[in-house]
Design brief:
CATH class of the largest domain: Alpha Beta
Strand order of the largest sheet: 4-5-12-13-14-15-16-17
CATH architecture of the largest domain: Alpha-Beta Barrel
Number of domains: 2
Largest sheet: 8 strands, parallel, barrel
Structural class: alpha/beta
Strand content: 15-25%
Length: 502
């Protein structure tokens, strides 16, 4: 029987570039449950992940909160470098020192702050149980705590916290285990348990809410020391070598050499420097879109390849530079080449839906790197605000004018001082809730997608791809419209990962 559709080789023999929307994957035979699908993978030669989900190193996407949450869920966060070396190193240290269930950098206020200050924290961070120290820093003794029950029904939001805070505290000593802290929290029937050192200074906090959320993370991405894994991006500039040394000392697991066009002498020289001075450190190199680019970076020592030049929702590189490649074509051609070298590939850009992520993986990518998918979550940097009645956060490309003014231009090879050509824009994204809700949604979608394809995991998916067993079909514009929502007067589009109570 002649199989339906086309193999990937046949699909990509066409002259024009192919995007994720241009094709569909034909279904296979299902003889297993979605829960049996194995999403384990690698981002580099030596770094495994339980789920193929990586956040982009953008200053409106990934700092320590995002990296911690993704690592707990089995993925990986790449902390951006649009900051000072000390700031980026501190972010990495925060991830490596994270203890599941313990808040190691709690927000504190002083007795002379006001209830209104807690209101602002609640609006920004989503919580309002705040420890009170002598001067509002972690350097002085803990003197009280303010919770919702203390201020919810207080009409005067200008009252000082010393007038409403609870002074009789149930605390635990530094060094207590999570199990012991959990037991004390249950016995106290309080929402928060402060952890203090011998001098009474706050060193941590255990929250009943966080204990419920963090009870079990069996897929957490951890190193040999049982610390969460984290990545960090660096530029190709020699000035970043001091930054690199600090990141390695802080325990970074993978460095991403971040260039819009990765096939340059500057990146080759940086790879040579990294491999000579830090031979045990894995490096993800890129960005690239051709096999020749992949070959150059792999020969220079890359442990993983990052694919994508211009497909991101906030990127204008292809329009501005007239250079790049359609993302589906780039992923397929590069991944096929890198597979022969046993080098994993990360598809970066253009993943606006769980279906696009499944397509990237079906074309040979080992992981998908996403910016827009995670922008607007609680864990993304930045503050929420309202635009036309909608709760939003900023999302911007590192090549946007706004980001370049802060330092993002390091990613681009500008030769003339003072002349910077924007290759991205700044925009707004709607509040998506927490990554702790979003990632399980993505993972379940991927499992069901691979089940529909008739494969039990990413390894089997890639074997089916290269054997020709996995079949594809081109989609006309009419077919693309047919495959989406249509023929309705109006509809409400669900927000990814947001749970709606019945």
């Amino acid at each position: 029987m002649q199989p339906d559709g086309q193999s990937a080789d046949e699909l990509f023999q066409r002259v024009e570039g192919v995007t994720y929307n241009d094709f569909i994957i034909l279904p296979g035979h299902i003889d297993f449950g979605a829960e049996e699908v194995d999403l384990s993978t690698r981002i580099t030669r030596r770094i495994p992940l339980k789920v193929p989900v990586v956040s982009s190193p953008m200053d409106t996407v990934t700092e320590s909160k995002m990296a911690i949450s993704l690592a707990l869920m089995g993925g990986l966060g790449i902390i951006h470098y649009n900051n000072s070396p000390d700031e980026q190193i501190a972010q990495v240290r925060r991830v490596k020192r994270f203890e599941n269930g313990f808040i190691t950098d709690p927000i504190v206020l002083s007795p002379n702050h006001r209830i209104g200050d807690i209101d602002r924290i609640r609006e920004k961070e989503g919580f309002s149980g705040i420890p009170i120290t002598v001067d509002g820093t972690l350097k002085t003794r803990l003197v009280g705590i303010v919770t919702n029950r203390d201020i919810d029904f207080e009409p005067d939001r200008s009252r000082l916290l010393k007038e409403v805070m609870v002074r009789e505290l149930n605390t635990a000593p530094q060094g207590i285990s999570l199990a012991e802290a959990n037991q004390r929290l249950r016995e106290s029937k309080r929402g928060k348990l402060p952890i203090v050192d011998e001098e009474g200074r706050l060193v941590g906090l255990v929250s009943r809410t966080d204990l419920k959320k963090n009870r079990d993370f069996p897929d957490a991405c951890k190193d040999k020391r049982k610390q969460l894994r984290v990545g960090a991006s660096v530029s190709t500039r020699a000035s970043d070598r001091e930054r690199i040394a600090g990141l390695v000392e802080a325990g970074v697991d993978v460095l991403v050499v971040d260039s819009a066009q990765g096939d340059s002498i500057f990146q080759v020289e940086m790879l040579a420097y990294l491999k000579k001075n830090f031979p045990n450190l894995d490096v993800l190199a890129g960005n690239v879109v051709t096999t020749r680019q992949c070959d150059n970076l792999i020969k220079a020592g890359a442990d993983g390849i990052r694919i994508g030049m211009g497909p991101g929702s906030i990127c204008t590189t292809q329009e501005t530079m007239a250079c790049g490649r359609a993302q589906a074509t780039a992923v397929y051609e590069c991944a096929k080449f890198c597979r022969e070298m046993d080098v994993p590939c990360t598809a970066d850009g253009g993943i606006s839906s769980t279906g696009a992520l499944a397509k990237a993986l079906s074309l040979g990518a080992s992981t998908g790197m996403m910016g827009g998918m995670f922008a607007g979550t609680q864990e993304a940097p930045g503050e929420y605000f309202y635009k036309d009645g909608v709760r939003v956060k900023k999302y911007r490309g590192l090549a946007s004018v706004e980001a370049m003014e802060k330092g993002g231009a390091k990613r681009y090879l500008y030769g003339l001082k003072g002349i910077k050509v924007a290759q991205g824009v700044s925009g707004l994204v709607v509040d998506k809730g927490s990554v702790l809700d979003l990632v399980p949604y993505i993972v379940q979608s991927l499992r069901q997608s691979l089940q529909d394809m008739g494969v039990r995991g990413l390894g089997e998916l890639h074997r089916a791809l290269y054997s020709g067993q996995l079949r594809f079909e081109r989609r006309s514009h009419s077919a693309q419209r047919e495959g989406g929502v249509h023929s309705l007067l109006a509809y409400e589009e669900p927000v990814l990962g947001v749970r709606h109570e019945p």
